[in-house]
Amino acid sequence: MIEIGSEGLTAVVNPQGAELWSLKDAEGRELMTDADPAFWTGRAPLLFPIVGRLMDDKYRIDGKEYALPQHGFARRQPFALIDQAPDRAVFRLIDNAETRAAYPFAFALEAAFSLRGATLAMDITVTNTGNADMPASFGFHPAFAWPLPYGAAKDAHRILFAEAEPGRLAAIVRGGWMDADGWDSPVEGRELRLHDALFERDALVWDPVRSQSLAYGAPDAPQLLCDFPDTPALGLWMKPGARYLCIEPWHGIADPFGFAGEIWDKPLMQRYAPGQSRTFSMRVTLRG
């Protein structure tokens, strides 16, 4: 485990998957999931090279078919620690024999974590290191404590979006695939009041989401401000009864139910030219 710190926060990252395992405030209070195995043991997996689930867990490219698990393989791969300072750590995954069997592309996935004051910055850079165009999606999946450790009841917590979010939500149906015509948004103006029943049908998915930031917490207590400028879709997810809320900015999404096209036609799939890089950023600030 790699620990970094600032005057306001301490973070711990597991090189397995370059996964954020802990984020604590200056008093040592945990801001992330308790990872109760009765619900979900994940903490903050990095979703690459796909987000969500493929139809039949398979995709097609250039007349060939490959299998990939939900959310891809990065979360199950060991990353190398390539740079470390008291307030910063950088990890890198490059293609290997195991990844190429499921995803025949040369790539580098670099995950930088840094702390400054009360802000955690996560910057994930995808690079095509091969000589052919590469399809890839990326998503964040951090699970924060619900309730946060500041005394407010669970049902006092809310999401306050930067913009009004009136559009219909996409639905996750039939084992993890997408139905773009889902259900009416539960957001009232900019506010989503949180309760377990919201998630009885699985995640809430905005595709697209208007906002590039949101605040999470109880109105009269410290909150987490999440900024996500590079991701046009957003998922919120938990398992009813659990003590976490996943706030998931995505540049990618699960296959529509029945999808049978090539991976290039998958919604929100990006095409990387040889040598091309893109960086996806998420900032988490403890405020109040």
Record the SSE blueprint.
Layout: E1 2-5, E2 9-14, E3 19-25, E4 58-61, E5 64-67, E6 80-85, E7 88-94, H1 97-102, E8 107-116, E9 119-128, E10 134-136, E11 138-139, E12 143-145, E13 158-161, E14 169-173, E15 177-183, E16 191-193, E17 204-206, E18 213-217, E19 223-227, E20 233-237, E21 244-251, E22 270-272, E23 277-287
Summarize the structure in short:
This protein has one helix spanning 97-102, and strands spanning 2-5, 9-14, 19-25, 58-61, 64-67, 80-85, 88-94, 107-116, 119-128, 134-136, 138-139, 143-145, 158-161, 169-173, 177-183, 191-193, 204-206, 213-217, 223-227, 233-237, 244-251, 270-272, 277-287. With 288 residues, the chain is an all-beta fold. The protein has a nine-stranded antiparallel beta sheet, with no helix packed on it. Strands 11, 12, 17, 20 and 21 form a five-stranded antiparallel beta sheet that branches.
Overview features:
23 strands; about 290 residues; mainly beta; 9-stranded antiparallel beta sheet; single chain; globular
Structure description:
- The structure is a single chain.
- This protein has 288 residues and is an all-beta fold.
- It has one helix and 23 strands.
- It has one helix at 97-102; strands spanning 2-5, 9-14, 19-25, 58-61, 64-67, 80-85, 88-94, 107-116, 119-128, 134-136, 138-139, 143-145, 158-161, 169-173, 177-183, 191-193, 204-206, 213-217, 223-227, 233-237, 244-251, 270-272, 277-287.
- It has a nine-stranded antiparallel β-sheet, with no helix packed on it. Strands 11, 12, 17, 20 and 21 form a five-stranded antiparallel β-sheet that branches.
- Strand 1 (2-5) and strand 2 form a beta hairpin.
- The chain starts with a strand and ends with a strand.
